[in-house]
Protein: Beta-ketoacyl-[acyl-carrier-protein] synthase III
Amino acid sequence: MTADHRRAAVLCGIGTWLPPRVVTNDDLAQQLDTSDEWIRSRTGIRERRVIDPGTSTSDLAVEAGARALKSAGGGNVDLVIVATTTPDHPCPSTAPEVASRLGLTGVPAFDLNAVCAGFVYSLATAVGHIVAGIASRVLVIGADTFTTVLNPHDRTTVAIFGDGAGAVVLRAGTADEPGALGPFDLGSDGTNAELLIVPAGGSRQRGSGQPLDPADVHFRMDGQPVFRNAVTRMSESAAKVLAQAGWRIEDVDRFACHQANARILTAVARTLEVPEERVVMNVDRVGNTVAASIPLVLADAAAAGDIVPGHRVLITSFGAGLGWGSTVITWPDIDLG
Structure:
């Protein structure tokens, strides 16, 4: 087989961070009209991590970013991308502060908001910078404190989401190396934006001239159509990226789907005909961590030996927007810390 020496972005480091506070289903049952059985049967989630007062998204991002840099052997990067929907402030971007706190002052840094698809979108953006020669080493962080935008009385959302961060370092390499990312499939459908939305806080609400409805500062989700769209969009996107990569479904050693809830993961895997034992999952322990979901599940699976060097991994994600994205990677031999 002819070697492929095209310039590519290669995964060379990974790191994660979760808030120390664990909130179990039984804990939620003491505050809401719910139960462990109700939550598990609908989501597969038994616990999630939640930030303590005084902690922000940048705090989680810095911890995960530092661990990813250490995993990659240290050194500087040429770009920092923070995928998040819960920045520290509406303005400025969170990424420059994260970069500065990591000792990367002067490095270009920006946020990318594609919600639960944000990490895959950020990977594609980083790959573009590397392939174009704009950067040779990029730190990509997915970090969200999504519990801060939830209605504490809404059991359907409080039960699902958790806080966390995951990061990777990508370096310039060649397309035939283990760890080379791509191809990618990305897409969106803004006609269904209202299915997952925080109505207030942006220019639409601020410029309306109408009094703020306190309920509008919280996240809202229309569960059934979200479920249908998630399964359809991730299944179609994953199939497209497999075709671009020239992989068959039987070539996939591990399937890393955005950890929305266990029922969605199972439905997507069934649609794609991925065997259950090849699906990696940690949603039961961390919930839906939004942009942190993909790096968290990859790192957890690698640490547990469920993903090993040489495994061909299919990655797919879906989130508000609506937005979705998929890619593939042959897992490299990297330091997991």
